[in-house]
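Still learning. Show one?

>
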Amino acid sequence: MSIRLKLALALCLLISYQACLADLIFYPLQHKTPHELSPTINELLQAGESVIAGPNELILRLEPRHVDDIKALIHRLDQPSHRLLIYVSHQRQLNQQSQGYGGQAQLQTGFHSDTSLQGHITIYSTRDTENDQSKQSIHVLDGHTAYISTGVSQPNTSTEIIQHNAHAHISSNTYYKERSSGFYITPRLSKDSVILDISPWSEQTPSNDGSSNFNRASTIIRGRLNTWTELSNVNQWSAQGSNKILGHTNKTRKNSNSIWIKVVDLDTDLNN
């Protein structure tokens, strides 16, 4: 028998012997799920050791000298997740202002070369302001992802007529177009602050010309607990003017969209 074959057989016997000595442990979890903890535990196991995610427990095969350390690690990781209440506010402000003047003149000619000039000038200034605000809230556990969406689903029906000889076939199809506001968010607590992976959006009802306003953002930020934090702010400004012989018009339009967020920790007593 060659030396290499002898070494291979010896190694197999050693592994089998260690496996026989390993303890089979069923560790029930109180707060976390087995699928949450098993990847972390698996990275710290030695050769010949294993961990399996059971229904409500971890199934481990460990060497006796590692049992106490792994149990202490599982106990440290198996802590209750904080309950968080998340508020997201969409704010929109529209300001439109129009000002100017316009005039009319009329020249009248009569007999005996009598001529008169009549006219009037109108000065105007208008201002329109619109304020829209929507607020949403949702409960989620620390480290987990939450999703919320509210809005309307508008039906749109299309009709098709197919003419074949003297017969006509009419078919219709209805599809729905959603306009909503909401967000995806994953919060992670870090002492007295929170790290947020968030993607909010907001869509407005179409105007008379068929156009609609929307506001979307996606970012990762750190903010303080129980404090409103501005996530994004978009300002759009436009101006238009026109001049005539007897008039002048100036129109301005400012559209401001902002998103604010606040996270409240409902389990602050768990830190004590």
